[in-house]
């Protein structure tokens, strides 16, 4: 049974990845600042730990004996915090710096540990007008994307050094709902669903034609599981995950409004365009479609949950959660 440590296991993506891994015969250690939720019905032998992963000593203890480390730690403040909060760098880059050093000191006989890292498709900066596939040069336009790219470069350098076998999976716009405490989705889709449930208009910073490659969180979790079976083919590279559609956000918002209206028995809330804030990044106004065929050719992974089904499930879950809170 391979030993797998998930760092950031209590978060939104982390909870989904941990649940997916728990369905396999592995020794699974879920580590985060807060206690992680691990489904107990699977064949995995599980252990839940809490730790400050910015501490080198606590990080070393968390990955001790691990054959695989899944690095899903990211600062909760997102791109806005990265512009001004020093703690953002300590999390987004510092954890990777410390992880590489911990594994450098731990070198032993046998293959180096596999490290799967959650990068971001936005690391390239302004995308071209065609689908991106990972071959594009990186010109990150925000502090957050520069930090993510910096961590990825540390991972690749450690792979070349033979310290570890690093694989960066650059994530698209991930959305959905996971049944775990503290695992709230703060992304654009969940934000719009909550506004619609509250009867508030859905606002866009553009005319609604801007596209995003939307992937349900369970499909993303399956990609991390798929990567485990192909470490040698994937190591040293970055691989883009996406559905390959490019969904216009105006259409997504209107679908969300209609789904919420059907559930509540009310008219759908309006979808309106508003002036963007002055600090809105330029990438928010550029369409993104992702060609994940390089990763698919190696692993066989592809998205399996249709967009409409994924939106229905998200609305149902968030509506149920709000009703429970009331």
UniProtKB/TrEMBL annotation:
<dbReference type="InterPro" id="IPR001509">
    <property type="entry name" value="Epimerase_deHydtase"/>
</dbReference>
<dbReference type="Pfam" id="PF01370">
    <property type="entry name" value="Epimerase"/>
</dbReference>
<dbReference type="InterPro" id="IPR036291">
    <property type="entry name" value="NAD(P)-bd_dom_sf"/>
</dbReference>
<protein>
    <submittedName>
        <fullName>Oxidoreductase</fullName>
    </submittedName>
</protein>
<dbReference type="InterPro" id="IPR050177">
    <property type="entry name" value="Lipid_A_modif_metabolic_enz"/>
</dbReference>
<feature type="domain" description="NAD-dependent epimerase/dehydratase">
    <location>
        <begin position="4"/>
        <end position="242"/>
    </location>
</feature>
